[in-house]
Design brief:
The chain is an alpha+beta fold. The protein contains 9 helices and 6 strands; from the N terminus they run H-E-H-H-E-E-H-H-H-E-H-E-E-H-H. It starts with a helix and ends with a helix. One of its GO terms (cellular component) is cell outer membrane.
Length: 418
C-alpha cells in the first residue's frame, strides 16, 4: 500500500500535465454546438428559403391546360327564318381544348408582405431555439459543479490518506519495538481501508456526474478529464439580458407584420390573361365546325366589402400582442425574484466560508497537538482518528461551500443572461 501511494503521488504531476482540462465556458460552447436542438437553426433557415421561393413563384405566369366534351339537352334556336339564309343551331355535342395563361400584374404588395412575415417568423423560431438552448446552462451548471465537487473531495481524501499513511508508519515502528500496542496499528489500518472505500465511492460518483455532463454536451468525456474551478465575477448593476426578452420583442414584431399582411390581402389584384384553344364550336357559336381561337385581356379582383373580417382579425392580433406583453412582464418579475434568491445564496455561502476558515485553523491546531500526543503515546489511535476526521470534515465542508458559492454565482449569471 505504501509503495502504491508513493507511486500515485509521484506520477500525479505527470498525469495532471497529460490530462485534458475543461472549463465551464467550453461546456456552454460545446452544448450550443453539439446539442441536437442546435441543428434546428439551420433547418429553419432552409425552410424559410423554400417558403420564400414558393412565394416568389406567385409572380410567374400560371399556365393551365383544359379540355372538355359535353352533350347538352338543348341549344340556341332562331325562331325566325330569313330569306336566302340558313342558320344552323349549334350541335348538342360540343368539344373544347384550350391553354389558359394568367399573369399577376399587381397585388398591392401582398407577396412582399408575406415574405417579411416569413422572415419575422424565422427570427422568432430561431430565437425560441436559442432560449431552449440557454436553459441547458442551468443543467450544465449542476452537472459541472457536481463533477467538480467529487473531484475536490477525492483530492482531499487522497491528502487525508497521505496523512494517515504517515501516522500508520510511525505506529508500526512503535509496535515493532513494543512502545505501542498492536491495536493502535489495527485501528489505523481499518481507518485506511474505510478511506480507500470512500475514495472508490467518490470516483464512481464523479464518473456518473461526468457521464451526465457528457450527455448534455453530446461529447465523450474521459474519466481523466479535469474540470477547472471558474473565476466568476458578478455585476449586479448590469441589466438583465435574457434571450427570452428578445423573443418577446420578436413575437410582437411578428404579430405586427401579420397585421400588414391582413391589410395587403384586401388590396385590388390585377391579372393579365390569355387563352388559345381549339373546339367545336369556337367563339363563333353559329359555326358548327372545329375552329381555333384565342382571347387576351385584363382582369381586376377587388373585395371591396368583407363584412368587417379584416377589422376583427387585426383586433385579434392586438389582443395577442397584449398577451405577449403580459407574458413579458411576468417573466421579468419572476426573473427579478430569482436574482434576489441567487444573491441571497451568494451572501450565505460567503459568510459560511469565513467561518470555515476559522474552524479549519482551530481543527489544525487540535490535530497538531493530537499528532504529538499520539507520537508520545498519550492518546490512542482512535482518539487521533477522531480529530483527523474532524479536520477533514471541516475541509470537505469548506470545499462544498466553495463549490456551492461558485454554482450560485454561475446560476446568477445564467439568470441574468450575462
Amino acid at each position: 500500500m505504501k509503495k502504491l501511494l508513493f507511486i500515485l503521488f509521484a506520477i500525479a504531476p505527470i498525469l495532471a500535465f497529460s490530462q485534458e482540462t475543461l472549463t465551464l465556458e467550453a461546456c456552454y460552447d460545446l452544448a450550443e454546438k453539439n446539442y441536437p436542438l442546435a441543428k434546428q437553426k439551420a433547418l429553419l433557415e432552409e425552410k424559410l428559403n423554400s417558403e420564400i421561393r414558393v412565394l416568389e413563384k406567385e409572380k410567374l405566369p400560371k399556365i393551365d391546360l383544359n379540355a372538355q366534351a359535353t352533350y347538352q339537352s338543348d341549344v340556341i334556336e332562331f325562331p325566325l327564318t330569313l330569306p336566302n339564309t340558313n342558320i344552323e343551331s349549334p350541335n348538342k355535342d360540343q368539344y373544347r381544348a384550350s391553354i389558359d395563361a394568367n399573369q399577376l400584374i399587381y397585388n398591392g404588395g401582398n407577396i412582399a408582405a408575406n415574405t417579411r412575415l416569413k422572415t419575422a417568423e424565422l427570427a422568432t423560431q430561431q430565437q425560441q431555439v436559442a432560449v431552449n438552448l440557454y436553459t441547458l446552462k442551468s443543467r450544465i451548471n449542476q452537472s459541472y459543479f457536481s463533477v467538480l465537487l467529487f473531484q475536490e473531495q477525492k483530492n482531499l481524501l487522497l491528502s487525508k490518506m497521505k496523512e494517515l499513511e504517515t501516522r500508520l508508519n510511525e505506529v508500526k515502528i512503535g509496535v515493532k519495538y513494543g512502545a505501542v500496542l498492536p491495536a493502535s496499528e489495527q485501528v489505523l489500518t481499518a481507518e485506511q481501508l474505510k478511506l480507500e472505500q470512500q475514495i472508490s465511492q467518490t470516483s464512481f460518483d464523479r464518473k456518473k456526474a461526468l457521464n451526465n455532463l457528457a450527455s448534455l454536451l453530446s461529447q465523450n468525456l474521459d474519466t481523466k478529464t479535469i474540470l477547472t474551478t471558474p473565476e466568476i465575477l458578478i455585476a449586479p448593476e448590469i441589466e438583465s439580458n435574457r434571450p427570452e426578452l428578445e423573443l418577446f420583442d420578436l413575437q410582437e414584431t411578428q404579430l405586427e407584420t401579420s397585421k400588414e399582411v391582413i391589410s395587403k390581402s384586401n388590396y385590388p389584384k390585377i391579372f393579365g390573361f390569355a387563352q388559345a384553344g381549339y373546339g367545336n364550336p369556337g367563339l363563333n357559336m353559329l359555326d358548327n365546325s372545329f375552329q381555333d381561337f384565342y382571347m387576351v385581356g385584363l382582369k381586376l379582383n377587388w373585395n371591396v366589402f368583407d363584412w368587417g373580417k379584416t377589422k376583427e382579425k387585426k383586433q385579434a392580433i392586438d389582443i395577442s400582442k397584449e398577451i405577449v406583453s403580459t407574458e413579458k412582464e411576468t417573466f421579468v418579475l419572476n426573473n427579478e425574484i430569482q436574482l434576489k434568491e441567487a444573491e441571497s445564496d451568494i451572501k450565505k455561502y460567503e459568510a459560511m466560508l469565513l467561518k470555515d476558515i476559522e474552524i479549519i485553523e482551530l481543527r489544525e491546531q487540535v490535530l497538531q497537538v493530537s499528532t504529538s500526543q499520539l507520537q508520545n503515546g498519550v492518546i490512542t489511535s482512535s482518539e487521533y482518528i477522531t480529530e483527523l476526521n474532524n479536520l477533514y470534515e471541516a475541509k470537505i465542508d469548506q470545499q462544498v461551500h466553495k463549490i456551492q458559492l461558485s454554482l450560485a454565482k454561475a446560476n446568477y449569471k445564467v439568470i441574468k443572461g450575462e
